[in-house]
Write a structure and sequence with these properties.
The complex is a heterotetramer of chains A (543), B (330), C (345) and D (610).
Chain A (H helix, E strand, L loop, with lengths): L6 E6 L8 H4 L2 H7 L7 E3 L5 E3 L19 E5 L14 H12 L8 H5 L1 E8 L2 E6 L20 H4 L11 H5 L7 E7 L3 E6 L13 E6 L3 H10 L5 E2 L6 H8 L4 E16 L25 H9 L3 H9 L3 E3 L22 H10 L12 E2 L2 E2 L1 E7 L2 H16 L3 E7 L1 H4 L17 E6 L7 H4 L25 H12 L3 H17 L3 E14 L2 E2 L17 E2 L2
Parallel strand pairs in A: 1-9, 1-10, 15-16, 15-17
Antiparallel strand pairs in A: 2-3, 4-6, 5-6, 7-8, 8-9, 10-18, 11-17, 11-18, 12-18, 13-14, 19-20
Chain B lengths: L10 H9 L11 H11 L1 H23 L43 H36 L1 H16 L2 H36 L3 H15 L2 H8 L4 H12 L1 H25 L10 H8 L7 H29 L1 H5 L1
Helix pairs in contact in B: 2-12, 3-4, 3-12, 4-5, 4-6, 4-7, 4-10, 4-11, 6-10, 8-9, 10-11, 10-12, 11-12
Chain D lengths: L8 E14 L2 E14 L3 E5 L6 H9 L7 E11 L5 E3 L5 H7 L4 E4 L3 H4 L6 H13 L3 H14 L5 H6 L7 H13 L5 E5 L7 H18 L2 E5 L3 H7 L2 E6 L2 E7 H6 L4 H9 L34 E16 L4 E17 L3 E5 L6 H8 L7 E6 L2 E2 L5 H7 L3 E4 L13 H12 L5 H13 L16 H13 L5 E5 L7 H18 L2 E5 L3 H7 L2 E6 L2 E7 H6 L4 H9 L23 E3 L9 E5 L2 E4 L6
Parallel strand pairs in D: 3-8, 3-9, 6-7, 7-8, 13-18, 13-19, 16-17, 17-18
Antiparallel strand pairs in D: 1-2, 1-4, 4-5, 9-10, 11-12, 11-14, 12-21, 14-15, 19-20, 20-23, 22-23
The chains are: A alpha+beta (543), B mainly alpha (330), C mainly alpha (345), D alpha/beta (610).
The structure holds adenosine-5'-triphosphate (ATP) (2 copies), magnesium ion (2 copies) and nickel (II) ion.
One adenosine-5'-triphosphate binds next to strand 12 and helix 12 of chain D.
């Protein structure tokens, strides 16, 4: 029964600052917006596409996708209305496309539309998206929480440079979702109420919703699991023992789900020596010793991944050595990934002639001591990892200096800062990365030679480790040409293995998303492939 | 009405004595002896000095007595409780090898306390002294040279409005590499942090000192010093500075506290020392999430910080009294 | 007096301009990027486009000039419009319409006018931090007065001890400690402050009290610690003055002597200390706000900093600078008002 | 009223003993002091600093407890208004509160600090009235106004609204007196009410108190160390010495036949105006108990050392919106004089007439606006900062307040050595030898070298200041009220010391003072200043024996004489308030023209404003 269960209180320790995902791209904003505005289709908790505002998912089989893979036709379910009561039409969908592709708008989801040639609306309920070239995965535009549909009427004046002046629209978008914003306080709290015109007359069960932001993960966990002040807490990046202790509070429980998010150590394939100039540092190949297979293999062997999981993530982590750990068919199984072998690592190094020649406890490779700088962003779990891994690496005769950098600097792309992860002015660095949806093709592109950040590209580029292999590039090219799923899986596994074995990175932990829900909140289905709040319409109060 | 006292021959001497100089009752002693005697009478100061001495010795020679490596990870022995928990909880996981327990990675807490104390004390003292030097210098110059007063006070306003975090980030960006080259990763960061804390905390001292200098400058002995040809530099160093010592002492005590706390807040925000370099503030901040299971992890560094600050304050109080000859005389 | 005040006010304008320029350049130099929170899945080219849309491509001086025009010319227009339209203070004036859609200072993070957010945050900060300040003053003054009056008594010693402890324990320790005790264990107070709560009746007032009590206590502890030290010192200075003896010689009671004659004089330095602390109220108490999720100005600044939201950081810090300069001036004037010996003219 | 007043004792102090708790143990403040105060009588308590005068009076008010004192023995009987007799030593503080300010009034030493700076005069005056008399605010204000009239403050209505700092020292002291008199107390205690004041104001205040006593029949306990004031005021005198009463008697008896040697010494040390009549040159005083003194006139030499011409010093007054220079304080206006080697020129005048400014201008411690200063051939005005610093070796200064002019944080030897270090006139161990020599010279034991200023008495401190001034062997010393803050006996010693040094070293002094008797004793030449100008200048003998200018004459009249038979009466005094020395920037001051009335004796003919 709609609006029968009172209020649902959700806490996001990162506060949403805008309700328009096209202008922000931050996860918190996308998820907050997903309570109000919706895409045509989205992924469910298993990563499967489900129709949302359309009748069915278009495929080649049902004729929704053209044979040459250049066109996809969406059929909007009739009768859907915006929260202001006006009908939802294909015109809104086309407008959303125009909105995001306006060159002055600075749309965060531009990649979704880059390959789109045109969006046509033959009638009120039909949207035809045409791509520039055959697209094996045509489910980018208007799919998932990142590209919901905006109301054309509301945003008509907000195209291009005017986008940021539409404060009212950005804070209070008219949507088709289960809730409407009553008050938006940026970076603080969002008050919402049930959408009167929601398509399912029985939903949402809650009359109002509050989405509070701020504080830290620990406080959010406490509020849900210990004091019961809130019903749902998002993304609790906390040590497992802390989570376990909070669960003892008896008010709620933690729920976990796994996507392709993976914590890894990137190995710098270029030389980060500070004595090189700023434009040569981390540009000139090779690294003095990190590309030596014995070195990076030994470093990987020295790591006790099960222990890392236990210490850092508990039920929200799994041991993996696969760069793309999900969907399952792409993942590889590496032998010895789950066992630590310090002695083996030492032996490997000894064998390769990398021994301690001057007796300072640090091995030398051709005269260069195995002395590295290990950087990461500031975060309690990462710092514990750093400490542990440093310890292990020192056991195999390396010297490790730790550095942690504030994440706003580390992940900010400021070309002027020496501390960004793209610049990689260090030997190894640790962070997590993932990709959207279920198709890793673009993500695999992150190890292509020409994606390496360098001065000419203003230090932009996704190939952080500067991994470069002709073989890899060629195989990736092949992937883009292949449509057959099984074949794609095979190529994917091959790419995965190449990066691991040729010293691109040391995968550590396959990370899940851990959120907490109150015991009295029902209907929560943790979804890592889309917004966590994707099915907030189904949530209800348990007695 | 009483009878007038009749003069007796002996009282002649009384009169002469009346015109003679009266000597102070106590024999003169060396200045520092005097200061020390006075200080010794101040109970709070003695407690403060004692505790500071203890802490300083503990962090300086502690590592030679308790030789455990604070960064040594011993994952099998993680989450140990301090030995004293065994008193009321016989089932607690304790061991004499880790008298104060261990953290979630099994690092020895006692060793961490010692190493953390070393860092915190060093940062606290260095930043406090630097900030005092800057504050006093600016305050004295602004108070003494009328022409510089306006500009310097406006500069104080400027620094008051500088946000510390971006400032630190700027400093880290600009200077980390050269400092790291010169002083090593920890030394470089130490210099950076100390400087930034000092640069953002000298303003109250400057204000207070300036006010006092303005008042003292009008006292006659400054004019007297000028009339005997004392140069401005010497007037400042010999006549003005000793007389503003007591507000400086107070600032010092508060400054040490703020420096230690600011450092911990910076570590907390992740812009401080490398993560494996313990400081009390960081130990405290890290342990807050596990406060319920392991209260000692917050209490030990918390108490250490508080006691240090407290002792500095008491010592400051005592020193102020002892250094002022007027009070000392009484 | 009035000329003195106006003169200082006018002189502070160049100071403020200079301060704003220095802050701007500092923020320019600081590393960081408004795109830091955009997930890694968004490719760099797109991020570059987003940056350009924010106007980041322009040279710093142009950006500074734009910001200056916005903050000093356009925002005041908006403010005046608002004042004459809606505020109860000036609402009776004919509505003005100065603002005609020029670009205001827009936050990069929220794409909304920075000023609106600041104004939205002020009530939260004022209720919590402001009340903490008042509570702190109300506790500190009696403690300071009594400690000085009974110097070296047990009360004085204990007061010194407690205030020093209060000063030396950081709020990121006391805050969570209070939460564990009162929210988790006892369940008396909420651990998360509800900024949308509106007081309408007695019950909601009680709720408001409950949620305010912990942040207020944490902050008040620190304020009390500092102020009571000042108060004590100032009282001690004055208790030995000749005029106190005169007052006693008139046969006034101890209460009147201390609470009227001595207090008035001792308050002179303390009041200026209090006035100088007011900018900090508006600045909020960053850590306390974060611990209790009181999303006030302090939290605004820190989130903006971490998000590298330059216009927001710039405007908020400038706002502080204005307050600091203003309250410096107010402190000076208060000094003159309270102390008839000092007259600025 | 007068007749109705009972003539018996109002207060009887009997074997009073007061002790203080200090860090070094218990210290006795007064010991075994007994005396009575009768109605309608003025009892003067005299004695030098620290002799226990204030302690006795504060004990009588039972205020001594608030200062850390403790009445350890004795009785203090007080006749209350109701007629009953009360022992004040046993009364509790709440009872004392009804007596303080009501039946016993007290006037304190320092008018500058005795009033609360943050309350209006009216508020402070009415407070006591409202407490003791239960008057309403209106009534109290009416009474306060009446009181202010009684103490003859000009414009009393306006004063009620003013703050203490807006009044001059004399007016403030009158407010304090009015406060003490407010409830018509039976006993009035005046603790050195005039020590901090000018002669002229002092004369007025004394006359005022005398009149009030006569009119209301109040008993007065008058504390002072100034024998001239005693002679002027007292009916009976109590002499105190080191916490004990040494002598008591009617005023004439004390002055004419002092019994106790201390009293004799005290009286001998008082310079009396007119003592030097007939003598051309100054000579040291004869000190009681000293036998080895040689008293010879100091003639000096007739060569000019310092020639000052048209010296003018003005302080800018800033105002208006741009802090522009809108007016000037004409502190020193067209002053010219010559000082010979080995001689003393005294500058006298009321507070604020520009004496200190003139003295400081000579050393360029304040920058003169114009004029020439020639010191032994050096044109001081033309010197560069460097040259000036060198020139200051030749001229030194001694300041009024021996407390303020020494750095409380430095040891005495270091302070005396400071000029030596500054000019490097000696090095190494030589420095300390010289310092020791200087200590000997000013007759201070060498054991004082390692002490701090607060450990010395005022006279000793002033001798340190003199030693410091002597350290560079200057030719000229400007002594700015160098003896004003000292006890008479000490003052005499310091004066003699200065004169002995002058005779030996051929020092020249510019001696600034407002004490006519002292000036008469030490000077060769005297300049009388009024409103920045010298109104009369000439040889001391000429000026003192034959004052020409109206102001000089008035000044002479105001000086109390240490002789109870030559009391001054109120009608002798006619002082006008000094006009403001502030003039707009474009004000043209008339040049000073003088008429020579006798050789070397000049009188200002320009309008001086008097
Ligand atoms: N609060 C105090 N603590 C200790 N000793 C004190 C205190 N007040 C006065 N004394 C001592 O009592 C003695 C008498 O002091 P008192 O103030 O009565 O002198 P006085 O005659 O009034 O001197 P003056 O002329 O300087 O006012 C002095 O030796 C002084 O040291
Ligand atoms: N630094 C200054 N700035 C402005 N005015 C001053 C300054 N010094 C003195 N005056 C003024 O100059 C005049 C003369 O002051 P001065 O101190 O020379 O008088 P004085 O004769 O020494 O008085 P006293 O006997 O009180 O010491 C006074 O009106 C005083 O207010
Ligand atoms: Mg006295
Ligand atoms: Mg003077
Ligand atoms: Ni009568």
């Amino acid at each position: 029964q709609r609006a029968s269960d009172g209020e649902v209180r959700i806490i996001y320790w990162q506060a949403p600052s805008i309700m328009n995902p096209f202008l922000s791209g931050g996860t918190k904003d996308i998820e907050a917006a997903s309570m109000v505005i919706e895409p045509l289709a989205r992924y469910d908790e298993t990563g499967t596409l489900v129709p949302w505002l359309v009748e069915e998912i278009p495929t080649v089989d049902n004729g929704g996708v053209s044979e040459d893979m250049t066109q996809i036709t969406w059929n909007i379910t009739p009768g859907i209305t915006w929260s202001d009561g006006t009908p939802f039409t294909s015109e809104d969908v086309r407008f959303t496309y125009e909105y995001c592709t306006d060159p002055k708008g600075g749309c965060a989801q531009l990649t979704k539309f880059e390959t789109v040639k045109s969006v046509e609306t033959p009638d009120e309920h039909t949207v035809v998206v045409t791509f520039n070239e055959p697209t094996p995965n045509p489910y980018g535009p208007f799919v998932g929480g990142e590209s919901p549909i905006l109301q054309a009427a509301q945003f008509a004046e907000c195209l291009g440079a005017a986008a940021s002046t539409c404060t009212e629209a950005n804070f209070n978008p008219i949507g088709t979702g289960p809730f409407v914003v009553t008050e938006f306080r940026p970076n603080d709290v969002i008050s919402l109420k049930a959408n009167e015109n929601f398509r399912d007359p029985n939903k949402p069960a809650f009359a109002t919703a509050t989405l509070k932001g701020g504080g830290d993960a620990a406080a959010a966990g406490t509020a849900v699991m210990e004091t019961g002040e809130f019903d749902y807490a998002w993304n609790l990046q906390l040590a497992p023992d802390v989570i376990a202790r909070m669960e003892e509070g008896g008010q709620g429980e933690a729920v976990a789900g796994f996507g392709p998010l993976m914590e890894r150590i990137m190995l710098n394939n270029t030389n980060p020596d500070p004595s090189l100039g700023p434009d040569e540092r981390s540009v000139i190949r090779p690294h003095p010793f990190l590309q030596e297979p014995a070195v990076y293999k030994a470093m990987s062997m020295a790591i006790d991944r099960p222990l890392l999981v236990e210490i850092g993530y508990g039920q929200a982590g799994r041991v993996t050595c696969s760069w793309v750990p999900a969907p399952e068919p792409y993942a590889i199984d590496v032998e010895g990934c789950d066992t630590q072998d310090i002695e083996g690592a030492k032996a490997l190094l000894d064998e390769a002639g990398i021994v301690d020649t001057d007796g300072d406890g640090v091995r030398e490779h051709e005269g260069t001591p195995l002395s590295i700088v290990y950087q990461t962003s500031t975060n309690a779990v990462r710092q514990d990892f750093q400490a542990l891994i440093k310890d292990w690496w020192e056991q195999i005769g390396m010297e490790v200096e730790l550095r942690n950098i504030d994440s706003s600097v580390f992940f900010g792309g400021d070309p002027g800062s020496p501390d960004t992860f793209q610049k990689f002015y260090a030997d190894v660095e640790m962070y997590a990365n993932t990709y959207n949806g279920t198709d890793p093709q673009v993500y695999f592109g992150n190890a292509l030679c020409d994606k390496a950040p360098r001065p000419e590209t203003q230090w932009q580029g996704e190939n952080i480790s500067r991994f470069c292999s002709e073989e890899y590039d060629a195989l990736h090219e092949e992937l883009t040409q292949t449509a057959d799923l099984e074949e794609r899986y095979r190529i994917g596994r091959e790419l995965n293995r190449m990066v691991y074995e040729q010293g691109g990175m040391i995968p550590l932990v396959h990370r899940g998303r851990l959120s907490a829900k109150s015991n009295t909140l029902g209907g929560v289905v943790l979804n890592v492939w889309d917004s966590e709040l994707w099915n907030v319409a189904d949530w209800y109060r348990e007695e | 009405m009483t009878e007038p006292v009749v003069a007796s021959p002996a009282t002649d001497e009384v009169a002469i004595e009346a015109l003679r100089d009266r000597e102070p009752s106590r024999p003169p002693r060396s200045q520092w002896r005097d200061v020390w005697d006075q200080l010794r009478k101040h109970k709070g100061a003695m407690f403060g000095a004692g505790f500071l001495l203890f802490i300083t010795l503990a962090v300086l020679i502690g590592p030679f007595i308790w030789t455990a490596d604070p960064q040594q990870i011993d994952i099998r022995n993680k989450d140990m409780r301090p030995i004293y928990t065994a008193l009321w909880d016989s089932g607690a996981k304790v061991s004499w090898a880790k008298p104060l327990g261990s953290d979630q990675l099994g690092r020895d807490q006692l060793a961490q306390m010692i190493a953390g104390g070393r860092a915190s004390m060093a940062v606290g003292w260095a930043a406090m002294i630097l900030s005092l030097v800057i504050g006093t210098a600016i305050g004295v110059i602004a108070g003494y040279f009328k022409r510089l007063d306006g500009p310097l006070m406006r500069m104080t306003d400027l620094f008051l409005s500088l946000p510390i975090l971006p400032l630190l980030l700027v400093a880290v960006t600009l200077f980390r590499q050269p400092l790291r080259a010169g002083f090593g990763p920890e030394g470089g960061m130490f210099i950076l942090i100390v400087t930034v804390i000092a640069v953002t905390s000298w303003m109250p001292t400057a204000r207070i000192v300036r006010g006092d200098i303005l008042a003292i400058k009008e006292r006659e002995f400054v004019l007297a010093a000028r009339s005997i040809g004392t140069t401005s530099r010497r007037i400042i160093s010999r006549h003005l500075l000793p007389n503003v010592l007591s507000p400086i002492m107070v600032s010092a005590a508060l400054g040490l506290a703020t420096a230690i706390i600011t450092e911990s807040a910076l570590s907390f925000l992740g812009v401080g020392f490398p993560s494996d370099f313990p400081t009390w503030g960081k130990m405290l901040a890290d342990a807050v999430t596990r406060m319920e299971q392991f209260p000692e992890r917050v209490l030990l560094p918390g108490i250490a910080i508080s006691l240090t600050v407290l002792s500095v304050n008491y010592l400051g109080d005592g020193l102020r009294d002892a250094l002022d000859p007027r009070i000392r005389g009484r | 007096m009035l000329t003195y005040a106006t003169r200082r006010l006018i002189l502070s304008i160049p100071t403020l301009l200079f301060i704003s320029f220095v802050i701007f350049m500092l923020l320019q130099l600081a590393p960081g990027d408004p795109m830091a929170q955009v997930p890694l899945t968004v490719p760099p080219e797109v991020k570059q486009k987003m940056r350009e849309a924010l106007g980041l491509g322009q040279p710093p001086l142009v950006q500074y000039w734009k910001w200056l025009v916005q903050i000093l010319w356009i925002e005041p227009q908006v403010l005046i419009d608002w004042l004459t339209r809606e505020s109860w203070l000036l609402g009776w004036l004919p509505d003005t319409n100065l603002y005609d859609g020029q670009l205001r200072v827009i936050s990069w993070q929220t794409r909304s006018p920075v000023m609106d957010i600041i104004i939205q945050r002020i009530p939260q900060t004022l209720t919590v931090v402001g009340i903490a300040y008042i509570v702190g003053i109300l506790i500190a003054l009696p403690i300071g007065i009594y400690s000085a009056y009974r110097q070296y008594s047990v009360f004085d010693q204990a007061g010194t001890f407690v205030t020093m402890i209060g000063f030396s324990v950081p709020p990121f320790f006391t805050g969570p400690l209070l939460i564990v005790i009162f929210s988790v264990q006892l369940g008396w107070f909420p651990s998360i402050y509800d900024t949308t709560h509106v007081v309408t009746d007695w019950a909601s007032f009680k709720v408001q009290l409950q949620q305010m009590i912990m942040p207020v206590m944490v902050l008040a502890l620190q304020i009390t610690a500092q102020l009571s030290r000042y108060m004590r010192a100032s009282m001690l200075d004055n208790l030995n003055q000749d005029y106190v003896r005169t007052a006693r010689a008139k046969g006034l009671s101890e209460i009147v002597t201390v609470m009227v004659h001595v207090l008035r004089n001792s308050m002179i330095p303390v009041v200026t200390v209090i006035a100088l602390g007011v900018p900090a109220i508006f600045g909020g108490a960053i850590i306390t706000e974060q611990v209790f999720k009181v999303n006030g100005i302090g939290q605004l600044l820190i989130t903006a900093l971490f998000a590298n939201d330059l216009p927001m950081v710039m405007t908020v810090t400038f706002f502080f600078a204005v307050l600091i300069v203003l309250f410096n001036l107010i402190a000076d004037i208060l000094y003159g008002v309270l102390d008839p010996r000092i007259r600025y003219d | 009223m007068l007749d109705a007043a009972p003539r018996g004792p109002i207060a009887q102090i009997d074997r009073l003993r007061v002790e203080f708790e200090t860090k070094d143990g218990r210290v006795v403040g007064v010991e075994d002091v007994s005396f009575d105060i009768n109605a309608g009588e003025t009892v003067c308590v005299v004695g030098e600093s620290g002799s226990g005068k204030s302690v006795s009076s504060l004990s009588l008010m039972r205020l001594i407890e608030y200062g850390g004192g403790d009445i350890a023995g004795g009785r203090m009987l007080f006749d209350r208004k109701t007629g009953e007799e009360l022992d004040l030593t046993t009364a509790d503080q709440s009872l004392m509160r009804t007596i303080r300010g009501n039946e016993i009034g007290m006037i304190f030493q320092e008018p500058m600090t005795a009033l609360n700076p943050t309350f209006t005069v009216g508020k402070q005056l009415t407070e006591g009235l409202r407490v003791h008399r239960g008057l309403s605010r209106k009534q109290a204000e009416a009474r306060a106004l009446e009181l202010l009239r009684e103490v003859r403050i000009p414009e009393p209505e306006r004063r009620l609204q003013q703050y203490p700092h807006e009044l001059s020292g004399g007016m403030r002291q009158r407010v304090v007196i009015a406060m003490a008199m407010a409830c018509k107390p039976r006993l009035l205690i005046a603790d050195e009410p005039t020590t901090a004041l000018d002669v002229t104001i002092q004369a007025e205040i004394l006359a005022l108190m005398d009149r009030l006593k006569r009119e209301t029949g109040t008993a007065v306990m008058f504390i002072t160390h100034d024998m001239a004031v005693v002679a002027q005021m007292a009916d009976r005198v109590v002499v105190m010495f080191r916490g004990k009463k040494v002598e008591e008697g009617p005023v004439e008896q004390i002055f004419e036949a002092p019994q106790h040697p201390y009293t004799q010494a005290l009286l001998a040390a008082v310079p009396k105006l007119g003592e030097m009549t007939g003598k051309d040159y100054p000579e040291p005083m004869k000190l009681f108990g000293r036998t080895d003194q040689k008293i010879e006139p100091i003639p000096g030499r007739n060569e000019p050392l310092l020639t000052v011409k048209n010296l003018t010093t003005r302080f800018p007054v800033r105002g208006g919106f741009f802090r522009r220079h809108i007016a000037n304080v004409h502190a020193v206006e067209d002053v010219s004089f010559t000082l010979n080697k080995g001689q003393t020129l005294s500058l006298v005048g009321e507070s604020g007439c520009g004496k200190s400014s003139a003295g400081r201008s000579l050393l360029r411690l304040v920058e003169p606006t114009s004029g020439t200063i020639d010191l032994d051939g050096t044109d001081v005005m033309a010197l560069s900062p460097r040259g000036l610093r060198d020139a200051r070796r030749e001229m030194q200064m001694i300041f009024q307040d021996p407390f303020a002019s020494l750095n409380p944080q430095m040891q005495l030897a270091d302070q005396v050595a400071e000029p030596i270090h500054n000019y490097r006139t000696a090095r190494g161990s030589e420095v300390m030898d010289r310092v020791a020599g200087l200590f000997d010279r000013v007759e201070l034991p060498r054991s004082f070298m390692r002490r701090f200023p607060h450990e010395l008495s005022g006279g000793q401190r002033q001798r340190i200041a003199i030693a410091r001034a002597l350290a560079l062997n200057p030719k000229l010393i400007v002594a700015d009220e160098a003896v004003s803050a000292l006890d008479v006996s000490v003052q005499a010693q310091v004066l003699n010391l200065m004169m002995e040094l002058q005779a030996e070293l051929e020092l020249s002094y510019v001696f600034i003072s407002h004490d006519m008797a002292v000036v008469e004793r030490v000077s060769h030449n005297v300049g009388v200043m009024y409103l920045g100008r010298i109104v009369e200048i000439g040889p001391r003998r000429a000026v003192f024996e034959d004052p020409q200018h109206a102001y000089t004459q008035a000044l002479m009249k105001a000086v109390p004489i240490a002789d109870p038979r030559r009391r001054k009466t109120e009608k002798d005094l006619n002082f006008k308030p000094i006009p403001s020395p502030i003039h707009p920037v474009d004000y043209q001051a008339a040049p000073s023209d003088y008429a020579e009335v006798s050789p070397g004796h000049f009188v200002l003919t320009t309008d001086s404003g008097y």
